Amino acid sequence: MLVLSRKTNETIVIRDDIVITVVEIRGDKVRLGIDAPKDVPVHRREVYEAIKKAEQEKADLQQ
């Protein structure tokens, strides 16, 4: 895992087309802005895991 320190309004670039900006730091919460192409899905981990679980359950039912 790469760990980076960033301040408000500083960015991280992934590939050539994904930019993550630290929008706000308040206490123990960090707000991030993510600029990515529309064909790149971006989800919070808990949402991503729920999607994957639903896809797996659907696949299991189809077998």
Total helical elements: 1
SSE succession: EEEH
Largest sheet: 3 strands, antiparallel
Low-confidence stretches: none
Radius of gyration: 16 Å
Strand content: 25-35%
Gross morphology is: elongated
What is the count of distinct domains?
1
Description:
The protein has one domain. The chain is α+β, with helices and mostly antiparallel strands. The protein is elongated. The model has no long low-confidence stretch (mean pLDDT 96). A hairpin with a 3-residue loop joins strand 1 and strand 2. It has a three-stranded antiparallel sheet, with no helix packed on it.
SSE diagram, text form:
Blueprint lengths: L10 E4 L3 E9 L2 E7 L9 H18 L1
Antiparallel strand pairs: 1-2, 2-3
Summarize this entry quickly.
With 63 residues, the protein is of the alpha+beta class.
Index terms:
three-stranded antiparallel beta sheet, 1 helix, 63 residues, 32% strand
